[in-house]
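cache lookup: miss for this entity combination. No prior model stored, computing from scratch. Input as submitted by user K.M.:
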Amino acid sequence: MSIRHEEIQAPPSRTRRIKASTSRHSDGRLAFWLILPAIVILTIIMGYPVVSSIVRSLFGDTLGEAVPFVGLANYIDVLFGNDSGTFWGSAGTTYFFAVVTVSLETLIGLAMALIMNKAFRGRGLLRASVLVPWAIPTAVTAVLWKWSFDPVGIINSLTGAHIVWTGSEWPSKIAIVIADTWKTAPFVALLILAGLQVIPDDVYEAAKIDGANAMQRFRLITLPLVRPALLVAILFRVLDALRMYDLPAIFTHGANDTTTLSILVVQSTLSQLKPGVGGALSTLTFLFIFITAFAFVKVLGVDAVGADEKTKTKEVTT
Amino acid sequence: MLVVLFCLLPFYWMLVSSLKSPGDILDNQLIPTRPTMMNYGAVFSDQNTFALALKNSLFIAGSVTLIALLFGIFASYALARLNFKAKNIVLATFLATSMFPGVAILTPLFQLFADMGWIDTYQAMIIPDISFSLPLGVWILTSFFRAMPWELEAAARVDGCTPLQAFRQVILPLAVPGVFTTAILIFISAWNEFMIANSISQTPASQPVTVAIAQFTGVSQYDQPFGTQMAAGVIVTVPLIIVVLIFQRRIVSGLTAGGVK
Amino acid sequence: MTQKRRWLTSVAALGVAMASLTACGGSAGSGAQADGGRGPITFASGKDLTGSMPKLIDEWNQLHPDQKVTFIELSASPDEQRNSFVQDLQAKSDKYDVMWDDVVWTSEFAAHGWLEPLDPAKVAGSDVLPAAVDSATYNGKVYGAPFMTNAGLLYYRADLVPKPPTTWAELEADCAVAKAHNMDCYAGQFAQYEGLTVNAAEAINSAGGSFLSPDGKTVTVDSPQSRAGLQHLVEMFKNGDINPAGVTYQEQQSADAFLGGKALFLRNWPYVYTNANADDSQIKGKFGMTTLLGQSGSGTSSLGGIDLGVSAFSKHKETAKDWVAWMQSQSSQKTVVSVMNQASVLKSLYTDPELVKASPYLPELQKSLLSATPRPKTPNYNAVSLAIQKNSYEALQGKISVDQAITQMAADLKQAIQ
């Protein structure tokens, strides 16, 4: 598999020649100007609020004009205080949702993408219909599913079940997973599809001539080549899933052990007006996600940054 | 077929529900027994703010897509093609900005815009939306550009093209599927953005559809106007489907066609 | 600007180099008031479902052409309304001069220094329901002009239960009728949200229990009375007198059950009357309304309602104060009852023959209002409410015992009011 992988990579020789001819210095300057607009906008919109929220997390939440500096007390309180059970419970819930939904979405999304990539009549319609769930505003889908999962709703009526979906732990979780998977699998599918489009047909032709069957072609060609797109899709889904808010908030208001970390953040920042604790919760959530993403990138070597970065740099220096 | 069913059945239910009168809405009939357009009437009745909201959404999501795409292409070209030291850090930073819980940035952002007098303006929604879509956009485009056959560009430059010409005439056409995929993703996420819009847009003059839908009410404050919300959902989704139908050809044609040339 | 804000700003500026953008602006109000605090103001209310708010405002505007009121209509959802207010108040903006505050926010807003204290002589006169005044009072000062009030009522099927029950025991006995007709006996709001706080508080208050001391500083929930109150609801779930789906019910679902003829009794707000009495209603002419029940006789409703608060950042506070008093006047309040279909805060209107004719439930509602208890009054209301919801919800599901629920509730409440 690894040998094939090498073969499919763009031939390095020509790349190297061109690269070497442009000086690294001017590359750097051009890159600076090209990246600047994106950086500026992110700094204003994300940087400032994030920094101010982290700073605020070091202050207390007493009423009145001057709030006292409390250092890491908010963090200690969240992690080890009386209410720490709530925090760790929601962290567990959040990771449960992230792992289950992202796995399902990846599998279903991959299947969708493979089907969409086949040439047949009505493919356009198929592509459009796959995107429908992703295109409906979240606020509307949440309401749609909430009514569908109502005890007297369409799902119980069609299946003849009498399940109080949002009334106890597992049915609630299952309902949330179903609604989330339905909504976001198309997102994964679209990203994978875009990756599939990059694979030239002649690679498959060659493999067919070599006698590879469909399964082998999928495992040895499709999967390795679609890997970068797949990993980027999963990575962004993980980031999103770890911040899940809408569905549990609308389905259960966080009851039945469906309180996610984002729900805790909203409860403390917006409904209880405790920006100090809220800031600490957001920062902790951020750290959790950061560590997860970092591990993900390291372990799986997401290609947009990882492995082939190094090889290219080496090419230039040699 | 299964895929289509999986995707469309709930949408079908949405459509059916939108055609039922409040009296029938809970009857669980798969085909409306007495179909009515009253929900659609209700959507547009409210002093026509919904039509205005559609326009606002179109403007906001359109601007976001164009600007984010432009900035995204710049940045990812640099990341994929050029050599500079801070590359990994830049990519990681982009990623890190989508790790903070959204609600945590809401309050500081609101204060910032309030201080600038930007509450209830388009730009106060467009700029945050751009920053939400940039990380994903940059990552997708970077991984795309990386997969491009850059030797073709090099060849073009040997043939006397300037770098810009080489990029425009050789690389961009090849990148079309990636660019369109990204555009669709950005457009949809901007079109569906609710949290920021909900706090920034305070009058119908700037309200996008997501906020307008949330404002729908039933006969009392305790009733959720399910049918009306579903009708609005259908109205909001159909333009997106049309856009996708138009653009999906682009997603297909791009590289395979270009590679042959 | 406060110390904190300044510190925050400078750090942020260092970090992001954006000092020019973060310079704190938007402070308002304190300057010399050449206009005597009078001039045009804004008034923000929740979604106006009857379209009568602009008419009231027009009336005022014609009388006061130089102190015009501009109407800002917010979402119908109380949570959304509160978010809008809180965001602007935290930014110290004067966008809303007069705010429509749910009674449970008044203490919180006052504690944050966002509301202007009002003159009790003008907005808490003798004709105003005492419970409503109480709900607008924080630390001995009145921070809102009571404008609308609300209390729960017990709806019953008069065709099946000709004589309504007067105690919980009688209610439970009547459940046999429900079983015979294959209906649920009782419906209320038991999903985990504010409505559950209301319902659980009613059960606990009706049994003689309470949550916090009147000053909001001590937790008092850990008592046999509170246990008895919660036990009543838990038992009805256990016996099947409340549908197991009840744990997902909000106002709408519970009303639907009663309106669809699937429940014998319903606890809900007066608004259900309009639907139940509509021409296409299945139960038109077949239902009655009475006060909520308790262990021995009438129960205690949780008090709902709206106070009109004057923003501390308003530039025209004097106009704002006059306006909220005017909204409480007899003529405005008549509109509240007859057009908006809401409960007035003025006692005298409950016996007004004309109004009673249109809304026959007014006398029962007044009884309910006179005995109603405000929900716990504390600046940390949302944390308190969450503690009540969470623990009662798990008890209703049978996940934990009533005893555990109350003990845990006491611990959570203590944490919440810190």
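stored under new cache key. Chain B touches chain A through 100 residues (CB under 8 Å).
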